[in-house]
UniProtKB/TrEMBL annotation:
Name of the protein: Ribulose-phosphate 3-epimerase
Biological process annotations from GO: carbohydrate metabolic process; pentose-phosphate shunt
EC number: 5.1.3.1
Free-text cofactor note: Binds 1 divalent metal cation per subunit.
PANTHER family noted in UniProt: RIBULOSE-5-PHOSPHATE-3-EPIMERASE
Binding site for substrate: 12, 71, 147-150, 178, 198-199
Gene name for this UniProt entry: LOC107226382
Residues annotated as binding a divalent metal cation: 37, 39, 71, 176
Species annotation: Neodiprion lecontei
Amino acid sequence: MAKILSAKIGPSILNADLSDLYTESQRLLDSGADYLHLDVMDGHFVPNLTFGHPLVKCLRNKIKNAFFETHMMVSEPEKWILPMSDAGVDQYTFHVEPVIDVPSVCRKIKETGMKVGIALKPGTPVNVVVDYIDMADMVLIMTVEPGFGGQKFMEPMMNKVRWLRNNYPTLDIEVDGGVGLNTIHSCAEAGANMIVSGTAVIGAENPTKVMASLKETVTAVLDKH
């Protein structure tokens, strides 16, 4: 049976009040988030530092059933596979750029039972995924340079999304960076079905309305195909 794609909205909690992460995360889930996108930065692969597996584990202890995706913006993603699995992460999305043996990292993630996400920075050509796409559950196309929130959306990255959708019709494709009500049409038309939105959702007066609108836009395009 062919896999049926669905639209999913995963707010990035990086822009939320990190001192009250549980309340903020629960509020987003109650407002219609399909999953939580947790940005993990090591201060090496990207200049910023955020949080690690101890915090994720604390969050999991309070939020039992939500789907957690960790976006690992780290130089050595293989180091954190077991700790993040132990912390209750559902999908481990890592950047291919610093990794020498991508299939090995994919295998190690799979062995823990987590899903595999492969992330590409704006400067990385999309066809690098060909060698290990069969090991990935999802590909994340960064639409800004990773490491900082609130950047401007890079429209040319939609060519990568289009290429992926044309070549892998049933693949989950995620976009992250500068995605909001003004840019969601580009993402949806290009073929993205998993939408990470930070500032646009967290900063909204009515996050429920914003997430519903993002989801409707993506669903409308999926329904046409």
